């Protein structure tokens, strides 16, 4: 089993009252990173445009690469990422999904971010869409930009009732599983992109499918059948361990856990709103990483996993 840990490295979740985008949560990243390094975990920091302006973060990111302790990837927040096609108030209040932009606008934003990240860090190979706003039409754009792996899919989860620029405009991944797969490009298989979905698992997949199909998602939920996210939320102490064990039992080749950097700062996320809760989160992550380490799990960054899982991607990375 391979374990990939992605951290959406981004703003403090909301603009301040003067509509400034702040990133004070980033000051906590070195503590998270230390826990990762101690256990051998190789985090992939998926960076949104707004973090580039933070000098301390840039130093941190450069050191991570220099010491070969992780990866810097791309995380597109269209509402903070130039070029802008909407006015400030509209984009900060509605936080549009990337797929709500025209494809040429999406492309301009993506290339802008990639260029800025590459100037400061390293070649960009891995991508994660802001608010999971990913559609298959993005694959060829990502591929042209040199990306080889995406991790925007949230299996068994629909964001259809979530609003961005328009009402109820989120993507729907409810029919996909957590198994990695290839997004095909129309003309050239060498440009395909590997999808490594966030590990969202179902305890009894066959039963879940039947109940969901005939009785609906809400009834399935009533029977305790619901998607289990491999995400450090304030759950019982062994929640993460249970999902990891389920992943092993169901023979997934990789566990892909995600979190947001702002979950490390009270006041910047809905789950960990006091310093004590953040300390508990860090303690649980440490316990979980040691559990994985003792279980003989291999730790890779997102691009390292893509290289290993799909060797022809390796050839493109080497170019
Ligand atoms: Zn984000």
Descriptive account of the structure:
Helix content is 37%, strand content 13%. It has 319 residues and is an alpha/beta fold. The protein has one domain: Glycoside hydrolase/deacetylase (TIM Barrel), CATH 3.20.20.370. The strands form 2 sheets. Strands 1, 2, 3, 4, 5, 6, 7, 10 and 11 form a 9-stranded mixed beta sheet that branches. A two-stranded antiparallel ribbon has the order 8-9. Helix 1 runs parallel beside helix 9 (275-294) and helix 10 (302-309) crosses helix 11. The longest helix has 20 residues, at 275-294. The two termini are 28 Å apart. Bound molecules: zinc ion.
Attribute tags:
single chain, 319 residues, alpha/beta, TIM Barrel, nine-stranded mixed sheet, two-stranded antiparallel sheet, 37% helix, binds zinc ion
CATH architecture: Alpha-Beta Barrel
Q: What's the mean pLDDT score?
A: 92
Radius of gyration: 19 Å
- Beta fraction: 5-15%
The tally of structural domains comes to 1
State the gist of this model:
By secondary structure, the protein is an alpha/beta fold.
């Amino acid at each position: 089993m391979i374990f990939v840990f992605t951290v959406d490295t981004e703003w403090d979740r909301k603009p301040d009252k003067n509509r400034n985008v702040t990133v004070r949560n980033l000051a906590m990243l070195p503590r998270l990173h230390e826990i990762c390094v101690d256990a051998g975990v190789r985090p992939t920091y998926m960076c949104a445009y707004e973090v580039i302006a933070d000098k301390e973060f840039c130093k941190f990111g450069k050191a991570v690469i220099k010491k070969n302790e992780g990866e810097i990837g791309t995380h597109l927040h269209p509402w903070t990422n130039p070029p802008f096609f909407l006015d400030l108030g509209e984009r900060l209040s509605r936080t549009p999904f990337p797929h709500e932009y025209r494809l040429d606008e999406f492309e301009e934003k993506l290339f802008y971010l990639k260029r800025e990240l590459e100037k400061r860090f390293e070649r960009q190979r891995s991508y994660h869409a802001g608010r999971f706003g990913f559609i298959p039409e993005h694959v060829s754009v990502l591929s042209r930009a040199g990306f080889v792996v995406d991790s925007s899919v949230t299996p068994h989860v629909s964001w259809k009732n979530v609003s961005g620029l328009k009402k109820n405009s989120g993507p729907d991944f409810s029919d996909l599983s957590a198994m990695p797969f290839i997004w095909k490009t129309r003309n050239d298989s060498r440009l395909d992109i590997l999808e490594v979905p966030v590990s969202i698992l179902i305890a009894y997949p066959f039963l879940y499918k039947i109940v969901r199909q005939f009785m609906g998602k809400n009834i399935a939920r009533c029977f305790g059948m619901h998607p289990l996210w491999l995400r450090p939320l304030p759950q019982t102490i062994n929640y993460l361990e249970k999902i990891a064990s389920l992943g092993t039992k169901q023979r997934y080749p990789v566990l892909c856990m995600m979190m947001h950097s702002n979950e490390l700062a009270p006041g910047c996320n809905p789950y960990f709103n006091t310093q004590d809760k953040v300390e508990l989160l860090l303690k649980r992550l440490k316990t979980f990483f040691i559990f994985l380490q003792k279980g003989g799990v291999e730790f890779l960054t997102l691009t390292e996993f893509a290289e290993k899982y799909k060797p022809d991607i390796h050839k493109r990375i080497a170019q």
